[in-house]
Fold this protein.
Amino acid sequence: RFTLLSKWNFLWESAIDENNSWIKEVLAKALTNTEVIAISWENIKEFVKKSPEIWYEMLQFIIIETNKRLLESNKILTSSWEIENTINSLNKITQRSIFWVIDKIQDISGVDYILFFERHEALPKYLILKYDSRKPNQMQDIVFEKKWYFIDLDMLFIDCDIKKDDNIIINKLSLWDELFWFLILWRAKKIFDWSDKKLFNSVWNSLAWVLKKFLSDREIKNIEYLNSKMY
């Protein structure tokens, strides 16, 4: 797992116990010039004696942050299991069942709504909005032209009645170099933190395989239909 640390966050806290044979392995990478304060075991007892109030505050902070990390990890594991279980429960993969999975992801992950875009089969420079979870069980069919990686968000905000100050995550659903569809997850107030991103990354691959199967089945049906017309 990874954690994005900011000012006064801590790491490698298990190493302060000299009797602990297990030392947590930590790899940290600074994105900017960073000053790191280290407390060695040789000096920690003296530090506790000289500055008990500061030590108490530090210990309290470490306990609170550790509990917070544990809760976030449990949330990721529980939510990932629920979403994976939803995907694995599909008996038949149809557009309606895919939309049902999207609604479940919205409920489990606590996002306000999800937009679901399909790659245009004939025109690769276009994406089609197929589903908007604000309109349950209603298939959409709005075409957008791709701009570099995705589409023009200003146009999207207008056409789909979305506020520009909402928080969003754009995820592509792909297997290797094969791009299938895009998902946009929206929240009006709460921001997406690292645990949300970790959760989404853990389930997108499974959903991509579902889409791969759906597209393959659809292609086979189209071929069978064309063959039936020829004979």
User: Anything to note?
Assistant: The CA atoms of residues 7 and 34 lie 9 Å apart. The beta strands are 113-119, 126-132, 139-147, 150-151, 167-175, 178-187.
